[in-house]
Amino acid sequence: MASLNxxxxxxGLLFAIGLAGVxxxxxxxxxxxxxxxMLSAANLSLIAFSRFxxxxxxxxxxxxxxxxxxxxxxxxxxAVGLAIIVALYRSRQTIHTDELTTLKG
Amino acid sequence: MPQYLFWFFATIMLIGGLAVVxxxxxxxxxxxxxxxxxxxxxxxIGLSAFFVGIIQILVYAGAVMVLFLFIIxxxxxxxEKARNLSWxxxxxxxxxxxxxxxxxxxxxxxxxxxxxxxxxDPETMAAAAENFREDTRIAQSLGExxxxxxxxxxxxxxxxxxxxxxILGVLLLxxxxxxxxxxxxxxxxxx
Lengths: 105, 191
Prior knowledge:
heterodimer; A: mainly alpha; 3 helices; B: mainly alpha; Four Helix Bundle (Hemerythrin (Met), subunit A); 2 domains; 0% strand
């Protein structure tokens, strides 16, 4: 049986990979995918905590409810974010963050 | 879940994650995200969270990543050229990850309480069945020694979490309307 520490370590590593992607990559769609990876890493921690902390013999379903909400909100976020990216591409013809400097002083 | 299956799915997940960051081609990155989410769904199912594992595959690996692929192909994005990777950002990213990993190992170095997962064997399930009304499906399945994951989640969702569920529905409606408004072609747009 894998221990709680193993799950938290794997989840932390996935979060770190997502964070690195957000910092390193310049393609806004890939940055967006890495944000999804970070959300999923948090979900893995929540599910592990829910399984390792039983309430009356059953897994703690409050944690799984939170994961359910996170997945639903992430789906809505992806839809809105991709619509913004499409609108951005229409007006600027680029999705590289280096070339999007309108807000730079 | 046996130890080797845990490491198998964890490796798939982490390799998928690394591939997302390292591939130049956005389509290859999107496929790697799907791989990563499949490994993650395996871990969820190994943690007895069957419903969440299934919606991870259906919603994330299915719907969300198909949407990503659709947008990538719609915008016809080519693979990134090498000049777009700045050394400062790469060094910053790798440094941040190294710092984070060191901190992680430091925190997880000492074992947490509840190291072993509490068992979900038929005796525990039968004992848990006493908290539910006898004529319900949940009590029946628990009495037979199974874990009726979907029924338990549905029960919780529609009793304790009813208001958040409805707020979530409104949020999805607002997001749908927002996407329609955003992707409408503005008539006064120049160029």
